[in-house]
Amino acid sequence: MQATQQVSDELEHWILEQVRGGQPPESVIAPLLRQGWEEQLAIDAVEAAMRRHLERHARDSGLPVPVPVPAPVEWNGAALLPAADREVQVLAHLVHPHVVVFGGLLSVEECDALVELARSRLSRSATVNLETGGDEMHRDRTSQGMFFRRGENALCARIEARIAALTGWPLENGEGLQVLRYGQGAEYRPHYDYFDPEKPGTRGILARGGQRVASLVMYLNTPRRGGATTFPDAHFEVAAVKGNAVFFSYDRPHPMTRSLHGGAPVAEGEKWVATKWLRERRYD
Ligand SMILES: O=C(O)CCC(=O)C(=O)O
Ligand SMILES: [Fe+2]
């Protein structure tokens, strides 16, 4: 009987009342279990009611509707995560913006090899011009960069498989790795990684894989001073340490995600990063 159990309007209303009243999920599910609901069905019912509520709320307020995003770690969960061929450390976890700092995602050798593979292919970084959908040079971004194609070489393929395992997000939804080099004084001013839905160029970009929903910035060296990744809305910064990485997700293309971030100026030395962007759907 439970497999076909539908959430009535009345039950949905009751669930939302409980959640609004600050009841934790266990207390919302308990009465359903007492009525004979199977646990997983009760959890699914509460989650579905919440999702419908958020979607309604988004539409009513003229906001983009939230979509599922990768969620690589649990609250107070394991400090070491298996990620295909490597164990990765969880160093920090922030709720809003949703940020996770990873330790030891790449080995020292992998960082060095990526830098060497990228070095001869660098050119001044462009930012996507959303008026036209094309690339352009921008003074907000004074780094040099290049893109690998997904699976372009064995190293990229290995790192991509590791990231897919770590994030639980399909490998096919990832863009190819981007490598950036910042010389002394170079920076990437605060920006959002999603594509602005209001801009005319965005439609064409979204046709391939949908929106970006998460970013992973991997540090390929340790600048002597400066070069942190900053999240101005959270007054939070992540130090660039070789082999570590910062992950952040954004469930809708809107500043309410507080996913504004930038690469602070490199004060001394240089900074190399590899960025992986994850899309909603398969990116071919
Ligand atoms: O260099 C950083 O710390 C941030 C890089 C970044 O925001 C990007 O590649 O989109
Ligand atoms: Fe970015």
UniProtKB/TrEMBL annotation:
Its cofactor is L-ascorbate. This is 2OG-Fe(II) oxygenase. It comes from the Bacteria. The keyword DNA repair does not apply. SMART domains: P4Hc. Keywords: Dioxygenase, Iron, Metal-binding, Oxidoreductase, Vitamin C. Coiled coil: none annotated. InterPro entries: Oxoglu/Fe-dep_dioxygenase_dom, P4HA-like, Pro_4_hyd_alph, Pro_4_hyd_alph_FE2OG_OXY. Residues 173-280 form the Fe2OG dioxygenase domain.
